[in-house]
Amino acid sequence: MPTDEFIAADRPRELKFDEIGYWSELKLEIVRDYAKAYTTALSKQGWCKSKVYVDAFAGAGTHVSRRSGESVQGSPLNALSVTPAFDHFFFVDLDSAKVDELRRVAQERTDVDVFEGDCNRILLERVFPRITFADFRRGLCLLDPYGLDLDWNVVRTAGQMRTLDVFLNFPVMDMNRNVLWHNPEKVDAKQAARLTRYWGDDSWRKAAYRSDPDLFDSDRVAKVTDANEAVAAAFRERLRATAGFANVPPPLPMRNSTGATVYYLFFASQKDLANSIVSHIFKKYAGRCVQPPDRS
Questions:
Q1: Each residue of 71-112: pLDDT tens digit?
Q2: What is the pTM of this model?
C-alpha cells in the first residue's frame, strides 16, 4: 500500500496538485467512511465475487489543503487503503500528468486500471460493462465533476445497471453562477445546454422558474425564491424515477461560512441497507457541513 514517503518519491516536477477547500476535505471523509462500511458488508456476503471502486474524476490521488497548505490524501488513495479491500479499482481523469501520477502510484498493480480521457465515454464503454449483475460484481462509484462536466447518460446507466452505489456532486454554485439567473432570458444558451446535459433534459426549468405575472408583463418568468432546494429536490426525484435508483436519501448541502450552498452531495443506491448507512453518515456530518470562518 502506498505510504506518504513512497507517494512523494520521484514525483513528476510538472505535476501541480489541486488545492481543495473545506467541503472537499469533508466529502473525502464521508466517502471513505462509506467505502469501509460498503466493503465490510459485501465481504460478509458470499455471493459477491468482486467489489469494485470507480472514480470518474480521480485527480492525481493527492491534493493540497487550501486551509492548511498540507497534503491531503485524495479519493483514489483513500480507496486503495480501505479494509476490507476492494477487489478492483478504476480511476479516470482528463489530465495526462495526473493520470501519470496515478499510474506511478499504482505501480502496475493488476487490480488497478487507470484511464486518460473523458469519463463520460470511458465509463460507458470500458468500465461499467465490467461491473455486471450477472457476474455478481458490485461497485461504489464517485462522480465528482469539477462543475457541470457530467453527462446524464452516465447517471442513468449507473441506475439501470443495479450494481452500483453512487456518490454524486450536484454543483449548484456553478448552476447559479452560469445558468440559474433571475431572468432566464439573459442566460447564455451554451451555459443552459451544459445544465441540460447534466440533467438529461430541460425539465430543470420547471423546478427553477415560475411564472410571476405582474402589472406590466403577464408572461414574466423568474427564478423561484428557494431555487437551490427546488432543483435539488427535483433532481433527487429524477434519480429515483428516471435513473431508477431505489434509494436516494436527502442530499447533504455543503455551505460556505455565510450559509450559502456550494453544492449538494447526493447518494444513490438500490439497497435499503446502503440507504440506512449513508443516512447515518450524513447525519453524523451534518453539523460540520458549514465552512468555519477564516480566522487568519
A1: 999 999 999 999 999 999 999 999 999 999 999 999 889 999
A2: 0.90
Determine the pLDDT at residue 217: 53
CATH topology of domain 4-171+231-288: Rossmann fold (3.40.50)
Place of cell 463520460: 120
Peptide bond into 12 cis (omega under 30): no
Domain ranges of the chain: 4-171+231-288
